Amino acid sequence: MCSASVATLAVLLFCALSRVAIAAAGNSPRFDELFKSSWGEDHMLHDGELIRLKLDAFSGAGFVSKKRYIYGKATAEIKLVGGDSAGTVTAFYMSSEGANRNEFDFEFLGNTTGEPYLVQTNIYVNGIGNREQRIDLWFNPTADFHSYSILWNQKLVVFLVDETPIRVFLNQEAKGVAFPGYQSMGVYNSLWKGDGWATQGGRVKTNWSHSPFIVTYRALTIDGCEIDVEAAVDDEVRRCGESEWGKEGRYWWKAPVMQKLTVHQLHQLIWVRAKHLIYDYCFDYARFPPAPPECGR
Fold first, then answer.
1. pTM, full prediction
2. Residue 21, phi-psi category: left (phi > 0), alpha (psi -120 to 50), beta (remainder)
3. Is the separation of the CB atoms in 235 and 242 below 8 Å?
4. Could you read off the pLDDT of 22-58 as tens digits, one per residue?
């Protein structure tokens, strides 16, 4: 929650610009305007303002935005699978299409009862991933809803949990590091079986006697530059990437305050990495003896 009594002007502006422009929940018309089932439709349940995905031995489920975006912010409030969730993977991500796709992943890795969820993030640029980071969380993500967001603009990609940044990928194209731009992306959500790798490296398998496994979503929001499918791709890229942000809030991701973290957000990120970081590909010397160029170790 942003407080006017303690926030700096930059934080206040961040709060104002982080408002949701489009909300989707449950079986309201708004959800159907924004999203559609992508697979396992008979395992996707509407319950008032909630969307529930079910995983059993036969199938999981997923849904995807009907439209695509260049830059902006996507948020989902999620209550993760409770109890023994070993081998399950809940995914919330943005992705373009094709072999050279860009992709920003949240993957929530289930665990045995009493063991913490791990949150894995990954970034694909021009079809190349292998940029995994993992953290544990400072709360129980199965007890209540928490918000998970992906912010993307020309300068950075930020992963946020309850508006706390947990990872930042900076645009370092000036140093020869590829950055994910100029490909329109959809917003995806899914629940699926990943027990070959998700829990303790695949050593713990899914116990199907505990199924069905249920993940619940609400307050799905997308606030970004929506692509006009009837327009030329180059024109849409130019409009979303080169248009100036305005006082009315259009192209808000181009506002100067959105181009980097505030001091408060930097402190939050440092805290997350100091207290909750489990794995960072940048420091995996066995996988990457020479550091990937964006790591700078």
1. 0.89
2. alpha
3. no
4. 445 444 447 888 999 999 999 999 888 899 999 999 9
Please report the DSSP string for 134-167 in residue order.
Answer: EEE-SS-TTTS-EEEEEEE-SSEEEEEETTEEEE
**Mean pLDDT for each 10-residue chunk of the chain (297 residues)?**
40 41 47 92 91 97 96 96 95 96 97 91 97 97 98 96 98 93 94 91 92 96 89 82 65 86 97 98 96 87
Cis preceding-peptide flag for 212 (omega within 30 of 0): yes
Beta strands in the chain (DSSP E): 23-24, 35-39, 44-47, 50-55, 61-65, 69-79, 88-95, 103-109, 118-124, 133-136, 146-152, 156-161, 164-170, 186-193, 213-226, 277-280
Between CA 92 and CA 120 the distance in angstroms is 11
Q: 248 an active-site residue?
A: no
Residue 230 bears catalytic tag: no
Residue with tokens 């849904």: 63
**Residue in the block written with tokens 């953290």:** 135
State how far the Cα of 33 lies from the Cα of 257, in Å rounded to an integer: 31
Q: Residues 49, 97, 107, 173: which is the catalytic one? A: 107
Which one of the listed residues 103, 115, 132, 244 is annotated catalytic? 103
Residue type, 70: I
- Compute the residue count for the chain: 297
Is residue 90 within 8 A of residue 81, CB to CB? The reply is yes
Report residue 121: phi and psi, to 5°. Answer: -115, 150
Q: Exposure string (b/e) for 228-250, b if CB count within 10 Å is 16 or more?
A: eeeeeeeebbeebbeeeeeeeee
3-class DSSP state of 35:
strand
Q: Kindly report the CA angle at 239 between 238 and 245, in degrees rounded to 5? A: 120
